[in-house]
Design goal:
The chain is α/β, with parallel strands linked by helices. The protein is 49% helix and 10% strand. The protein is built from 13 helices and 8 strands. Helix 1 crosses helix 2, helix 2 runs parallel beside helix 3 and helix 9 packs antiparallel against helix 10.
Length: 307
Amino acid sequence: MKKLDFSGVFVVMLTPFDGGGRVDLDTVDALVDFYCDAGVDGIFPCGSAGEALHLDLSQKEALINRVASRAAGRTQVLPGAIAANSRDALAIARIARDAGCNGIVAPPPIYYRFEPAYLRQYFRDVIEGAGLPIVLYNIPAYAQPLTPELFGELAQHPAVAGLKDSSGSMVDYLHFLDRIRATGRRIGLMTGREELLYASLAVGGSGSMSAINAVVPEIMVRIRDLYRAGKLAEANTLQMSLMELIQALYAVQVPIAFREAVAMRGFRMGRAVHDVPASEHAATDAKLARAREALDAALAAHKDAAA
């Protein structure tokens, strides 16, 4: 089985589209180069912010193959296996395995709410059938919550290599961390919230897998490096310098502002599948202008700190 080190900074990749709504593979190449050059520890294509639910299986396959081939030997790749049933999740796992990816990210099945026994069986089917390391994914805003109790059971399986927690709750995060310690295994725990890289590291977590990492990877990598070097005050100051940018990006329907922010970094992203309604253009433009100002300020603060 492939090896996975689920720690550090993992990019939640925004999917670029061309004018015809197809995945823009040339821009995929440019993005992968950008992230690898920034020193990220992994790339997460086919995630929520990457609009995975709007991609058919052939589009996911093209995207996963391109990211994996471009990133080979430079960073890890963990595609999302977001699906309504284990059959479809395992189809994505097969693509990831054939592409040489390091693992997959598996949230609870979408749409339906399941009793614990059914949810447990879903995860066991995916864990045992994927043939890759598994990062479980708690994202209660979009899927049934993964409880610390169920995670603790699933984490006993040797294929489970990590958990991405996007709850935003440090209470939940600590309970997940406690369950990991009880296993005695080396399992990574990453926050999915942009605001919490520093805080998660401070309590013993392993890093960040979030959409802000796709916008300012060099800043998130710098926070990682400062923390590891014991420069805690500097790391926290840099984390806090991102708050205005994060607020501005979430002021627009996700993932539109994140896509626009990546475009502001010089990449051809195209339109989101569900783009801004005509009635919202003026208001959205004003919010995006605020996001640009916040992005410029964050990059300037990073440059000054690094000087």
